[in-house]
Here is the input.
Amino acid sequence: MSRPGLSQANAKALERQLHKAVQLHQQGRIEQADAIYGSILQVCPTHFDALHLRGVARQQLKKSRDALDLIGRALKLQTTAPALSNYGNVLESLNRLHDALACFEKAISISPSFAAAHASRSRVLHGLQRYDDALAGAEAALAIHPDNVDGLLNQANALLALKRPAEALASSEKLLALAPGNIQALNNRGCALMDLGRHEEAADSLERVVASDRGSIVAMNNLANLYQQSGQTAQALALYEQACKLDPDHPNLNFNAAIASLTLGDFQAGWKRYEWRWKNRLFRSRKRDFAQPVWLGNFSLQGKTILLHAEQGLGDTLQFVRYVPLVAELGASVVLEVQASLKPLLGDLPGTSVVLSDAEALPPFDCHCPLMSLPLAFGTRLETIPNRIPYLAPPGDRIAGWAGLLGGNRPRVGIAWSGSENHRHDRLRSIEFALLGDLVNEPGVDFFSLQRDVRNSDAVALAASGVVHLGDRFDDFADTAAAVSLLDLVITVDTAIAHLAGAMGQPTWILLPFWPDFRWLQEREDSPWYPAVRLFRQGKVGDWRTPIGRIGTELRRWAEARAATGSTTA
Here is the structure.
């Protein structure tokens, strides 16, 4: 090929050099290839292939700014799908995801059958949390090239994000059949197996990944998560700490280490590290960027107005409003902002000056604190958990309306078996109503459903059970609290009902998954947060029948004792 300003001989010499550089590049000898591309550009600064490929080499050498300049210059000379796709890869590495997406889409418009561009587009869509679109992009790449490695990897990633682990496992195993040592596929396989509760198989995959790539923070984090879910919390914490030595400011590692510390009862380390949640992808969108400072116990509140605001679920709010009176005792005027459904219940909470829903305008305030930062602010340790129980009670005018529905002389037991389907661990904590069949048939006991929402899959079994469904009559949590106050016992999975009943001091039995939330600690059958609570834990992943069976045995004893003595002690 002749080039302007070059003799035919010089042009051929450059092409020979380019051919040699490409061979070295393909052999993984990146620095040598880069040097030859550079020598070509000294002779011909507008050599498209040398600009483009040197940009690719510089990206592989982790010199993204150089790569952006080189491929950008190449694209000014000629717009090709491969150059656009590689430019998109550089933009992605610089976290310019929207710009990268535009590059991949332009590359696809030029060359619709370019599988690599479809696969890269899928990866960026995943980074933008557009998981359905990411899956469609991966499948477009695989429709063109069924064995496309990036397409299979991105398909598994998207399926994992969409909570479709069985399909993610199939995709990962297809790739491993093509490339048995592929580290990313092994990692995805381990994550899929973990989500399916097949912990031993997951450990095999993830331990192989960590052994093969001891510097992989992602793999170490995933393996530590598996240890955590398998009840090996101390081992999980040790691995998080090991990974943090490689990247001390990694938000997910630090947040996960906080959860492990709190689960182990090490509140001093755990609450401090829990502040990393604001840099974790799952929580950072909830961070309130007020001009006023955050109070973490670091300055006097005397004469100040402080805003305490809910930040996570309803149960979290109910658990941590116990700190409100303690804040008021420091001389502060407390403005409490909570979810709208909790405002009627918390409107007269001791220690508050104003209680608002999260849809209302805020009054002036001097400082603020998220509710789940209050344990850190007060230096809470396991033995100093504030448990002035009860600290919640229903408004008096709500109780009378429920007394007629919950009358009678037989023991009254409220039940709740599922939480919000949007909770990221709902598949672990919620159960099917049918599993409670034997329990709610206990003779001599009246059962009442406290579920606000009943899933379609549970509706028929609930209607046939004889359980009185109250939940569809609740306007808000003040109604729920009024009904709970008239019960003798509450049996529930880990939802807001558990925290409501616990905070009211009602006898409460909680069914916990094998891997419970950190607040229930490890192995204990009681809770330092709620003295009237008993915990019934799974002995192995997915086994609800054993703890439900234990509750059935305890319920019979309780009912017999109550019948004999009139006692409601649970």
